[in-house]
Amino acid sequence: MFQRKKFWVVGIFWIALHLLLTLSPLLILLIQPAPSGRGFWIEFSAAFGYVGLAMMMLQFALTARFDAIAAPYGIDIVLQYHRYITQVAFALILAHPIILFFHDRQYLQALNFFAAPWRAKFAIISTIALILLVVTSVWRQKLKLNYEVWRTSHGIFAVTAVGLGLAHAFGVNYYLVLPWKALLWTLLAFVAFGSLIYVRLLKPWLMMQKPYRVETVVPQRGNAWTLVLRPQGHEGIRFSPGQFAWLTLDRSPYHIQEHPFSFSSNGDRTDQVALTIKAVGDFTNKIKHIQPGTKAFLDGPHGAFTPDHFSFTGLVLIANGVGVTPMFSILVTFAQRGDRRPIHLIYANASWENVAFREELEYLNKQLESLSVTHVIKKPPENWAGESGYINKELLARHIPSDRESWRYFLCGSPRFLAEVEKALHELEVPAKYIHIEHFNLV
């Protein structure tokens, strides 16, 4: 209970701080307005530009994976918020010149790049970089950009948009003519680019101090593979079951090729960790070919998708496909702890042959009296006596406890699966605050 209250308080604090920093340009106007005489629409346009720029600068801190910021919400929620707020900032920044152009056509002269003053040139390049950043992010799959190319270009566009946008603001030198106002924006720039230095330089250096080696690669059903890692020269990491880490394989952590995967091993065991990965893309299809002894680096643990942060009578774990990975970590960790609180696992798959950890789950189901496993098979084999089809409201009503509020519900799987299961739980009057969801789309 104390841990939950602590996360709630910390979460409110970060939201309030983010809102304060975002609106700081407008607060500056209220505290000490700039010289008058420019008219409402010019001031209105400037307000849009400054707020949008402040939003963009704070995105560097949101994506730096600071545990203190991500812990109350989960890093998947933070990254989703980052995507949405960037689009809001994009709209505000784009509105800034558009309002000026409609208000006074003389501002259109700034579009003459070669004749425009340097501050206008910086604004043009910054805006183009921001447009490219949004387009390549929103339509990355349609543009067929692989992850490494996208991530490199994303960083270049972001630094260009924010850096030149800030230079433009200082170049205009209207609101920032007073030293204390310039100091505020300098501090925001420090937060932005300090976060970038941390995540691109300091964090990889820290990861290099704690390397891992691949011990073995274990095939799983459903075209998945479990990567077992051993720490080299350090004690390893302890994580809460359900959390994940970013993995870098066979190269320096300064390289951009890192991917997030859930732990599938006992969180209390530090001498080895396991990550279970389904082969669905260029990188994941290479996992089965990884040789023992390959070097690896982990950035983690991350995530708030863990029962360790909450009090509960029992757990309902609902997953499809490889979404069972964090659930399996929860099960093996609770088994080793001797935790006897009841756990219901409801696990959906296309076929019986594709059930990852099938034998391990059968073993745990026999060994743990507190565990019950319900398999839901879309196309079941002949003489199948279990549940078939899809996880829906009617199926859940048969398996979740009648005492809805004393249990915690953890959901992990594909986006459509999560949306349907969450809707069904709401219809069954499961309180939203007891439902915890892990999304796959972190990148």
Automatic annotation (TrEMBL):
Pfam families: FAD_binding_8 (PF08022), Ferric_reduct (PF01794), NAD_binding_1 (PF00175). SUPFAM superfamilies: Ferredoxin reductase-like, C-terminal NADP-linked domain, Riboflavin synthase domain-like. The keyword rRNA-binding does not apply. Keywords: 2Fe-2S, FAD, Flavoprotein, Iron, Iron-sulfur, Membrane, Metal-binding, Oxidoreductase, Transmembrane, Transmembrane helix. It comes from the Bacteria. Its cofactor is FAD. Residues 207-308 form the FAD-binding FR-type domain. This is Ferric reductase-like transmembrane domain-containing protein.
